[in-house]
Amino acid sequence: MEHIYDTIIIGGGPAGYTAALYAARGGLDTLLIERMSAGGQMALTGDIDNYPGFDEGIDGFTLGMKMQHGAERFGAKTEYTEVSDVDFSQPVKYVETTDGKFLSKTVIIAAGANPRELGIAGEQELIGKGVHYCAHCDGRFYKGKTVAVIGGGNSAAADALYLSRLAKKVFVVHRRDTLRAEKIYHEPLMKTENVEFVWDSTISEFITDTRVTGIKVKNVKTDTETEIFCDGVFVSIGRKPATGFLKGNVQLDENGYIIADESTRTSAPGVFAAGDIRTKILRQVVTAAADGAVAAHYAEEYLAGK
Length: 306
What we know:
5-stranded parallel β-sheet; alpha/beta
């Protein structure tokens, strides 16, 4: 007879392992499924200094391992495999992976969201060497330096404002001639003296030695190329929620995020969404961890028939 877990958690980032900690500590038979390694996207971050309790900061990989060990201390199990399909239509949920099928009474989806990349040669190799996807995570390394923000939406505008308080100079490179961001961002950015806009332009190449020293940008209207010398590049062109495997089992918003409020409940009974994968305002390690605790709480309530 196939084993049926109390809860299966999909994703081993801060949301997933916090959910696993709370669920296992609460006595639930808990399985966490992670595609790569503990920490998720967090594991790729060099230094995290905005997560409470680490007064000198901590690297993302180490924090992820600590979260995993904390959950496993109370009996949570981890399977390293990739989820390919799910079925949430019955009281017992099916989670199909490349290593077989798992069954559970509840599911917490914490698969996260990945930054959209530029797709330019050398981008992957330069991550952490001048290429970044989180201004709040890595902006502090550029105090008094020159940076470029790529994008023109709300995230890019917010990143540019944040970085303008740290960096000497901020270039905002956008493919259009006006920001797509909400109007509330326009006036503050225009009034910020150390922010310069590079309109109608896309980044075509990184200038490097052992790390980023600048970028080449191409004007989309004239095809002319110019060089901008900078110490770092912050890519802010959106994120891609890892929801492809869900295939209609829960309701998503227009951007592909799982529709779930602060209770983390989804449209499927007994299924919860925690962390970057759900609709929310702020996507940070601390908010993901909070979601994980909430999701485990409501999973317990669901199992108790409340």
